């Protein structure tokens, strides 16, 4: 088949497997190719600002280009209003300023905060249009345009048994509180995003909001305004609610389609009674819950049928408000069910999880991912007893994530039971010594044949002899195409020769290894003292945009 005869559907299928830089090259071939490339690139155009493209533009400049293009997509009616009513006379608002494609048709995700900040960058870059009023007007018209034209919500199917990715997102914080550190201040008066009532032109657009993230305590008026507009939020993340308990509780109660809640307060010594009651009211419809146990008491689960819940994360804070009896009641309660729970994360002291075997038995048929993190060093006898309880009900696990024990022999208690395990990850040892570097070969003898990736979340200092013995053990028990999720502090040519040999033998995945060896040699560039100021600034903006996304 001649390449020019490829159908749009086939081009879209091919282009969907290309990298961003390659797509940009394809967009220069002809109009047909350009349309198909842009359909992919503009699904979430903000990624173009974070990706290191083959040009010299900074992330801010890329954001400005994106906003300029979107403004050109505004209707003639809106452009006339911007010029004649508000006096915004710029090239982009001229009727003849029309882009090659109606790019907003392709968008599948809208982040209000990123769009708000990007609009400000764009206005400041021109210098001729400044002021809060102009900023708010153009921002509202852009958001309305994207919602009306795009396929963000059109024909979007909602499966109540499957978590739906939120497409319309708002992430706000109080900048004063950020500057003061993680300390709540009742005198806060602002957020980094306008009050919803100050954006009257986009009330209908805001009403379609699907994910709300509050990274600090926000002024009560902000929550009150949002509560009067939004009823379709799927995902709520609250990273401090201690000064706004009632408003946040009302906001949670009013979301009819709520699927996911994340809640942590910086003040770990207080209970969030009203928010806890609101969460309890929504518990039987939630698919994911991530809370600080104690701030939200575990008794909210009493007599609840949590059979929609797919993910459960419980974190016990340093100043724990949860007693041993509270944990025992939660783990052993027969009146609570979790029939579809697939992922469980528990972060607390081992002694609080003495009855974990009882809970795991209840969810063993559905549970696939288990994350167990210790807050503090623990007695070896307690750890081994704890692991024995876990091992009894691990046969269906696909992913296991653990704080590394002091002695590797403790892991041997669990691994033989995990017949289907594909991902094993060892976490930071929480200020407790461990013998992983010395006993590294031993763990390779007990991996299940199903294992695909083995990760360690701290750098290792393993001798080449131990690496070779570890890989030999993996090969001898039948491990093939393994990926490693860790790096070595001292990595020599001898290490590389050993690992390449096991790539050839098939022990290690060749696809993984080519990426891994590059990262191992280069290290993490963000900590390079030789980086220029411009490079560091780019890193900052990449992090900022990714966080908002």
From TrEMBL:
Pfam families in UniProt: F-box-like
Coiled coil region boundaries: none
Domain of life: Eukaryota
Family annotation (InterPro entries): F-box-like_dom_sf, F-box_dom, LRR_dom_sf
SUPFAM superfamilies, alphabetized: F-box domain (SSF81383), RNI-like (SSF52047)
Domain (F-box): residue spans on this chain: 8-45
Membrane-spanning residues: none
Protein name in the entry: F-box domain-containing protein
Source organism: Rhizophagus irregularis
